[in-house]
């Protein structure tokens, strides 16, 4: 396939990015709409920087509901299993005895 003159090889269409990632074009569009991958809206479609998408996809994945490094931990949501989750994150020892701080 001959490359178009003046076209940056780093900039990909939805179909090109989908092929590189092994995903459907619909999935790539959904990820762009959700802000999961960086994209530039061009009319009805998007354009993607291959390097920018690769950088985002290389970042560690965070489970929903778990705090990330950029979220403050001062006021976490409390609920069932909160103390167990907190102990697991901090590596604290499990005790069955209540403390005076609770």
UniProtKB/TrEMBL annotation:
InterPro entries for this protein: DNA-bd_dom_put_sf, HTH_17, SinI_DNA-bd
GO molecular function: DNA binding
Domain of life: Bacteria
Domain Helix-turn-helix: 11-59
Region (Disordered): 57-102
Protein name in the entry: Excisionase family DNA binding protein
Organism: Actinomadura namibiensis
Lineage of producing organism: Bacteria, Bacillati, Actinomycetota, Actinomycetes, Streptosporangiales
């Amino acid at each position: 396939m001959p490359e178009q003159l003046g076209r940056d090889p780093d900039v990909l269409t939805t179909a090109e990015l989908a092929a590189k990632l092994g995903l459907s074009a619909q999935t790539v569009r959904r990820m762009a709409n959700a802000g999961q991958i960086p994209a530039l809206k061009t009319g009805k479609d998007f354009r993607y920087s291959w390097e920018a998408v690769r950088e985002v996809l290389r970042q560690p994945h965070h489970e929903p509901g778990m705090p990330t490094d950029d979220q403050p931990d001062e006021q976490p949501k409390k609920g069932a299993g909160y103390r167990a989750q907190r102990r697991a994150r901090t590596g604290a020892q499990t005790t069955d005895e209540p403390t005076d701080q609770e």
